[in-house]
Every structure is written in C-alpha cells, then in structure tokens.
Amino acid sequence: MNARSLLAVSAPMARALDLARAAAAAGEAPVGAVVAGPDGAIVAEAANAMRARRDPTAHAELLAIRAACEALGAERLTGCDLHVTLEPCPMCAGAIMHARLRRLYYAASDPKGGAVAHGPRLFAQPTCLHRPEIYDGMGGEASAELLRGFFRALREGGR
Amino acid sequence: MNARSLLAVSAPMARALDLARAAAAAGEAPVGAVVAGPDGAIVAEAANAMRARRDPTAHAELLAIRAACEALGAERLTGCDLHVTLEPCPMCAGAIMHARLRRLYYAASDPKGGAVAHGPRLFAQPTCLHRPEIYDGMGGEASAELLRGFFRALREGGR
Fold it and tell me: Measured between CA atoms, how close is A33 to chain B, in angstroms?
C-alpha cells in the first residue's frame, strides 16, 4: 500500500484492513469488518473466524453485525454503516439486509463469491426488503493484495 | 393439520414444526429448523430467536447450523441434512452453502423472502459453491397455517 492509497482510506476502513491483516496472521482468510454509528464512531468490529470458531457462518460481517446489535441492545442497525474489506457473500449480504444497515462500504470486489455486484446481486433483486447505499473500491487494492498473499501462501504450503 | 398430513411428515420435520409452534408462543415468527446426521438422528435444533436475542441473524437455520457445528466440532456439515419449516432467506441459504449441507428439506414456500425457489434462487446461480439436494413441500400446509395465524394475530394486535 502506498502513501496515496493510505490517504484515500477512511478511518473505519483502515481499521477493517488492520483486522483483516490480523486474521491472516491467525490463519484465517483475511477479511475485516467494522460497524460505525451515525456519527462515524466504531460500534463493533470483527475479523473472519471460521477456522478458530469452527463455524462456517463466522464471517467478519456477520460477527460485526451481531456484536453491534449486542452493543446497542437493538435488533436493527438503522443509521449505522458497515465497512468491510471484501464484497459480501450471499449470507452476509442477507444479514446486512435484515439488520437494515444504512450504508455498505466494501473494499475489494469478489467476482467468485460476492453477492452485491456479482452472482445473485442481492440488493438488485425485486424481493430485496432493504437496500443500503453501496460504496465500493476504497481500500480495494490493499485488501486484494492481502487476499492474494494469503492464498498464495496457502498454495505454496506456507501455512 | 389433519391426520393425513401428520402421517406425511418425517420425524425431523415434525420436530421442526414443534419448534416453530414454540417460537410463535414466544412471540417469534414461527420457523423451526433441525440438523440431522447421515443416520437421520437429530444433531441440533433451533427456532427463530431474533426478538429474544435482539439479533437479526438469529434465524432458526443459522442457529441450528451453528449448534450442529459446535456439537460435531466441525466447520462443515458434510453428510448432514437441514429440515426447516420455511423456505430459507438469502442469509440462511448462504449459510447452508458454506456449511456444505447434503440435503435441504423445507416445508412452506416463501415467495416474498425465500432465496431457493424465489428471488435470487441462490443455488441456481453459476457462482454457487455448493448445492444441496432440495426437497420442498413436506409439512408445507401445517407450516403455512402457523405463519398465517401468527401474522393474523400480529395485525389484529393480539400480541
């Protein structure tokens, strides 16, 4: 990541990238997520933990959403925003819909597993109950490089 | 539910319907889910608990999948089947995909919120990573009647 891309990343997305880096160091696919309140302050954060928790649903987004609901004592995150380092999968896009998040910021695109701009394009479905505002690309190169490095090391038997 | 439909429902689906009934009695939208192992024995079960847990991700399927992974100490439920009283939403269909469940049995269709035969039709997407065998309709009328009764009571201010 060069100085220009550092400057271009918001504080919540920078934190999400830090969480993704920590996930990679722990042997998890590097994805981090942060829920910020209406004022921009961080309400909850999480990183992928599928391996550590032995739980296929322990994606960063799902964990951050659950933690934010617990922190706020609320079933819905109306007015809150999710910042995540990778385009959400169908499961996480569905959770974003159920939580009624205001905005979704995601860094890297995921043509294979993503469900926002790819595959089922969940928020573009006529039956979608709630669509957040969507902003993509911020921090995308840093996130993609983290993911490439992680999967390269996996292929090379480095972990 | 008449005698004929009772006879037509498998033991795991009958249990899922019981869980849905208990959810309704607790003020939750009535959906129940059971994970059965390769031999048909129940591994884990859950009912909707979004209100009780103040958690928009606490759908019966997601809770049952997480409980089954915990019970088996495994990140994947290969060889296991999910029995649920309502067509899964995108979030839960995504979780079924990630958990690599062998078969999905669902009772009632959900044209508004479902993501299997409706809306994004997740398992029919070219990018879908894993497709379970899918069986629908068993117990459908009993489940639909439970849901109709619950939402009728809600509209009438009965709870």
Answer: 16
